[in-house]
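User: I'm writing a tutorial on reading structure tokens. Could you give me a worked example: one chain, its sequence, then its tokens, then a sentence or two explaining what the tokens reveal?
Assistant: Sure. Here is the example chain.
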Amino acid sequence: MPNTFGHLYRITTFGESHGGGVGVVIDGCPPGYPLDLEAVQAWLNRRRPGQSHLSSPRQEKDRVECLSGLEGGVTLGTPLTLMVRNEDQKPGDYQDMQTVFRPSHADYTTYAKYGVRPSSGGGRASARETIGRVAAAAVAEQILLANIPSLRCVGYVDSVKGKQATITDPETLTREEVDAHPLRCPDQTTRAELEGIITSAQKAGDTVGGTIACVLTGVPVGLGDPVFDKLEADLAKAMLSLPASKGFEIGLGFAATTLFGSEHNDAFTTKDGVIRTVTNRSGGTQGGISNGEAIYFRVAFKPVSTIFKEQDTVDAAGKQQKLTPKSGRHDPCVLPRAVPMVEAMAILVIMDHWIRQKALSAARLPR
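And here are its predicted structure tokens:
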């Protein structure tokens, strides 16, 4: 189903950006686990709008409600439904845009596919849909940490409009360090310049994009499958399903194309009785399966499509039009708020593959 992600830990998100609310139904949530809804709320607070001058001014509390699947604070194993009600909708901001297709938005393709489209906002294509993903990941992370206490997943802004940040040791970063600044870039040297690029674009009525890097440490060996459900393939699908994402690379990624095999191969060694690799150019996976090293990947995000400049477009009849948004509340750069979205999708992939591996291990015949 197009609104569902995952196999054994399966999530289905629902709602539109300017409807009554948005949320998620989690099917396959293991029973008997204490669930801290305030920890779920903390995740949602990291992605909500109105956080700073670098994000959309839309004011939403994004308070999470649990409608099913939880009793006495413990998961029941039945579908777990989490919902956030929309409180600050302003569909009137989109009145002038109801009859035209906004450049680089999903207006035209949605209309071509369904024959109808939401009259305000981006509907299901809006980043507000990701509330359900983030909530589901907050649940998954609590269960994963109960079983894999060493697991860590930290994302951060890696570049803005081609200007690269420098992070010496990404594996030691914490979310607290990343969240200490509104930009969510831990590089104190370039951070002011990166922020300046965003604020300059914002003043000009424009937007910018960039990249987010994410590091997972403590991932068990053996997650992922060798053919279609490679761990990196599922991570790629997860990341490219996010609004405004346009690229994905893991390990050295495209830079690996410049090396010889002898330069790229990660040699094996034994450390404290555990098989490890000397280098980690593969980014924590080999043959589609996690090898116990840190999983490192980067996601590219395009500039936000809503800009406050005149643009050429057409209406549903194909007639040429001029479009100049007079109002609206949009991020000048999606990156700061996309960091928890990237982390969320990574956690969802790890959770699904962890449950699948547990099932496979349980079914494996003794040798």
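What the tokens reveal: The mean pLDDT is 92. Helices lie at 37-47, 107-114, 130-147, 175-179, 191-203, 231-240, 261-264, 335-363.
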